[in-house]
Amino acid sequence: xxxxxxxxxxxxxxxxxxxxxxxxxxxxxxxxxxxxxxxxxxxxxxxxxxxxxxxxxxxxxxxxxxxxxxxxxxxxxxxxxxxxxxxxxxxxxxxxxxxxxxxxxxxxxxxxxxxxxxxxxxxxxxxxxxxxxxxxxxxxxxxxxxxxxxxxxxxxxxxxxxxxxxxxxxxxxxxxxxxxxxxxxxxxxxxxxxxxxxxxxxxxxxxxxxxxxxxxxxxxxxxxxxxxxxxxxxxxxxxxxxxxxxxxxxxxxxxxxxxxxxxxxxxxxxxxxxxxxxxxxxxxxxxxxxxxxxxxxxxxxxxxxxxxx
Length: 309
Prior knowledge:
By secondary structure, the chain is an alpha/beta fold. It is built from 9 helices and 6 strands. It has a 6-stranded mixed sheet with strand order 1-2-3-4-6-5, with helices on both faces. Helix 2 packs across helix 5. The longest helix is centred in the C-terminal third of the chain and has 47 residues.
């Protein structure tokens, strides 16, 4: 068997947002939000996935939206590319969902909590190694919670999850493993066979259950993501290679003029830095400061200075 990649927006919507996905989504949300406890017993999938309406290029940031039995709204997003200001976008979408619950004249008492669940295929928080991070409103120094906070944000960073099949213990472990590794599997692992909802997710993700239009949409979406990642990698590699060559040439000139080896080294470093700065400027509208810093070798302070120019 071959399984579609749940990290693409098309596949994610089909697995978790279709009319047949309610028990799957309940199990998934209980695992991600409530540590596997059966807190959610029922929900309504808002604007469920319909095969005839698939678009392989994302026109909405929210992949799946559900209303829980208690009135809470959960917005779920799967994000593969680490685009610029993504963290702000999550806050904006959460606040927007919360604030647009009311129509003119309605009282604030009608507001229900909003939970934003975001799964990323990149690391968002470099200073922490936990896979799941849960943010709520708290007093800054004494850390007590704000009364009726209204909004929560939960992040699952897939690259930080490194457990193997024989190490999966909890429902949360199994769902995160499914999200990260489903495309590389050929059969449903025996360690997951006791979770019927995960078996159902694998059944939906089985490529043999997709029609020709869905397969084309999936291939187009995966190609788009790979192209974007490839363009970024190629630009970075070519830019740094040019910077190294430019630096060597400038170093040779400076070395000849001054007759000192240190002049050559300084010239190389200067040329590489200038090229790195040029690449960083091109990435300002695409990536966040930390990612640009890791990519180019510049400091976060350098990137911030470029933004303020």
